[in-house]
Amino acid sequence: MAVKIQSVRGMKDLLPGEIELWQQVEQEIRDVSALYGYREIRLPLLERTELFKRSIGEATDIVEKEMYTFFDNNDESMTLRPEATASCVRAGVEHSLFHNARARLWYMGPMFRYERPQKGRYRQFHQYGIEAFGWSGPDIDAEIIDVGHTLWKRLKIDRFAKLEINSLGTPDSRASYRQQLVSYFEAHHGELDEDSKRRLKTNPLRILDSKNTEMQEVVQSAPVLMDYLSDESRDHFDRLLGHLRDLGIDYEVNNRLVRGLDYYSGTVFEWVTDQLGAQNAICAGGRYDGLVELLGGREVPGAGFAMGLERLVEVVRLGDFQPESAAADVYLCMLGDEAQKMGHSIAQTLRESNVATILHCGGGKLARQLRNADRLNTAIAIIVGQSEWEAGNAVIKNLRADELQKVVRVSEIVVTVKQMLEARN
Ligand code: ATP
Ligand code: MG
Fold first, then answer.
1. Which of 237, 332, 385, 392 has its CA 20 to 30 A from that of 206?
2. pLDDT score for 83
3. CA separation (Å) from 185 to 24, 167, 192, 215, 228?
């Protein structure tokens, strides 16, 4: 036997059996996006490396160590997208989507990050995200948070999701805060771990995000960004909190929430859960008012979020969301050559009436055919043998209820099957 080829580390196959829940979660996502007037945008998986360097920032975990970057045959540096906000902005600028217009957009698909694989952390994972371009007020921030909240309710996991929120203020106020923070951490240099010492030079705000338990004390006593906000930022944030209260969305202000991407400014938030262990963030987002300009467009404010679907589906699995059965409705058993020929046309007629039908292939005894029907969890078996074929009949058997099988004319199959399926619902 030849040597087996394994999948790539951190990249998962999603198999029949688990994919059904994904599909239903994805459907809720599409429905909720449409309910709020967001429209889908599909973006390439591959972009120029420069796009992510410039937007996410050189001194971030993603750009420093998590990107799948390579040179293509033309010696251009390409990167598999680690997130899609940058691509969304690139596409919007390229196709003038924001030119004198506002846009509510959503996307869904795989992202790639070279991280250490563990529960809730993969190298290929999936995100659903929404982005709203053209609004600068707190009303759109509230709407974006509300989209997530509505999704939790529809997926019956709202009791598992907690909102943490903060404001990063304007680039100016952040710069003066950054100075204060650096002086503070320099004064406590001995208490910092190696990672934080490095970040002190590159991205000091990220030190606040440290998960190192030994550093919690020094981080707790650090100056708080909220105290450095301009009146305008402070007012924006207060009005946002007011909207959230109006919407009935509980929140917790977390002054240490800074997010790992440079393009954020103003509002930032995370939806976290206590159901997943260490990888506890299911959705994260905020405002990125300077990003469109940074990527060559005009000044257009923006805000959005990205949601990790692996983590979301995992939480949904723990909740009360009832996935619909993915089984086909009918399994069609045939005995004999003539019956076999008739099978194709019966199956066709059923499918034209939207009845999901599995045609038995490969012949064999009736008992084996029925065993397949059972294994696949189908509701109904239709059996056509030699004598049924001669008489123009078929046998219909309810596999989910204790009732007698019936013999019907071939022309009556669809009506009978539909009645049986309806009776079941
Ligand atoms: P984390 O702190 O968990 O690394 P992050 O800040 O890097 O998250 P974002 O870039 O904001 O995450 O991405 C938004 C969401 O995408 C996260 O909240 C998470 O649900 C999901 N996500 C991010 N990285 C991964 C990954 N490697 N595997 C699975 N899901 C991920
Ligand atoms: Mg990360």
1. 237
2. 98
3. 47, 21, 8, 11, 17
| 125 Cβ closer than 6 Å to some ligand 1 atom | yes
Q: Phi first, then psi: give them for residue 360, nearest 5 degrees.
A: -65, 130
Distance 82 CA to ligand 1 centre (A): 10
Please give the full DSSP string across 347-410, using - where no structure is assigned: HHHHHHTT--EEEP-S---HHHHHHHHHHTT-SEEEEE-HHHHHHTEEEEEESSS----EEEEG
Atom of ligand 1 nearest to the CA of 281: 18
What share of the chain has pLDDT > 90, as a percent? 82
Q: Which of 68, 121, 144, 314 to mutate to test the pocket of ligand 1 (most atoms within 8 A of CB)?
A: 121
Residue closest via CA to ligand 1's atom 28 equals: 121
Mean pLDDT over residues 39-65, rounded? Answer: 95
At 107-157, the pLDDT tens digits run 999 999 999 999 999 999 999 999 999 999 999 999 999 999 999 999 999
